[in-house]
Design goal:
By secondary structure, the protein is of the alpha/beta class. It has a single domain, classed as TIM Barrel (Alpha-Beta Barrel). Helix 5 packs parallel to helix 6. The longest helix has 21 residues.
């Protein structure tokens, strides 16, 4: 089984964006009171939204299952207040649930959290619980920078986040550390902010990996191949040493994992040489940040299965990356699939 751990609902029906546009427009009016979404979207619209995109690419590329979440750039935690974020997260998660219900063999859900700058992460717990217990989701996306490029929250290792981590451990779900759009004009969102977010999260974990003494079963996935981390693995090993931390393999790699959203063969080759196969999960992020065809190969940049197939690693390691590690990092995955079959 080939499990893509990183897919987003980037092709949702236009009614969803119309609701978001209305939310944003309303914020200009001081008397505006956010309202829950009441969208009229048919199952046929949802089928059409994925059949020509994510589902088509699954079939063409030979993948079996996508761990599916709302559009990351669309989370927009910097927009509005906690109530705006709550209503927006609810409808985004509900639509992902509908995709999973219509195509139960192809998608399983991960939720967007209703984060908002400066708001206690406890505020996210009800939606996390609803998503796991009622929607059947198996994880969450956690934004380390709800400010959208200005980094105003405490580091992910700060106790400010602990109530959310306690609930994650209780529910036995991991988080993918994923920033959203950038409202900083100096920082492009997919080309800079995403990679910055991945790299920054890893350095935060190095600085205070004692987090995992408090939460030994807590798991994080750092997407996009870990940002700059694998390329600068020697730098991070050296920084950990200077900070009097244990070896990274002992200090962090029982809790921190990387995906394969790296869009060229040399990048995947580097990732698989530097990071143990036990810590890599297959992912493509399709349909996502890079949609075009690579003129050097004639294939889509985000057709990452080709890169793993061509990597100089053993069949056993490929199986870990394609399948085994997903079940390890997402403990609820096995039961979620069993209910659908």
């Amino acid at each position: 089984m080939i499990i893509d751990c990183h897919g987003h609902y980037t092709t949702s029906p236009k009614e969803l964006q119309a609701y978001r546009d209305a939310q944003i427009a309303g914020l200009k009016d001081k008397s505006y009171k956010p309202a829950k979404a009441k969208l009229s979207i048919s199952d046929d619209q949802i089928r059409a939204s994925v059949e020509g995109a994510q589902l088509k690419q699954q079939r063409e590329r030979g993948t079996d299952l996508t761990i599916f979440s709302p559009r990351a750039a669309g989370m927009g935690h910097h927009i509005g207040d906690a109530t705006v974020s709550q209503y927006w997260s609810e409808i985004c998660n509900d639509l992902v649930k509908r995709v999973c219900d219509i195509f139960p063999e192809n998608f399983v859900g991960v939720c967007q959290l209703p984060q908002s700058p400066g708001v206690d992460p406890r505020n996210c717990i009800p939606e996390l619980e609803r998503s796991v217990k009622e929607l059947g989701f198996i994880g969450c996306n956690l934004n380390p920078d709800p400010s959208g490029g200005y980094w105003k929250e405490p580091p992910l290792t700060d106790r400010w986040w602990y109530p959310l981590y306690e609930k994650m451990v209780e529910l036995d779900v991991p988080a993918m550390v994923h920033v959203s759009n950038s409202c900083n004009p100096a920082v492009h969102y997919t080309g800079a902010h995403y990679i910055n977010g991945d790299t920054t999260a890893f350095m935060q974990f190095i600085s205070n990996g004692e987090l995992f003494k408090d939460f030994p079963t807590l798991k994080f996935i750092i997407p996009h191949g870990g940002g700059a981390v694998p390329f600068h693995w020697g730098r991070y090993r050296g920084l950990a040493q200077d900070l009097k931390k244990p070896l990274l393999k002992d200090y962090l790699l029982k809790n921190v994992f990387f995906d394969t959203c790296v869009y060229h063969q040399p990048g995947i080759d580097l990732l698989t040489k530097v990071i143990p196969a036990e810590n890599i999960l297959f992912a493509s992020e399709m349909v996502g940040a890079v949609k075009g065809i690579d003129p050097e190969t004639g294939f889509n940049f985000d057709d990452t299965k080709r890169y793993i197939d061509a990597a100089a690693i053993s069949a056993a390691d490929k199986k870990k990356i394609f399948e085994d590690n997903a079940f390890k990092v997402f403990p609820r995955l096995k039961a979620a699939l069993a209910k659908r079959r």
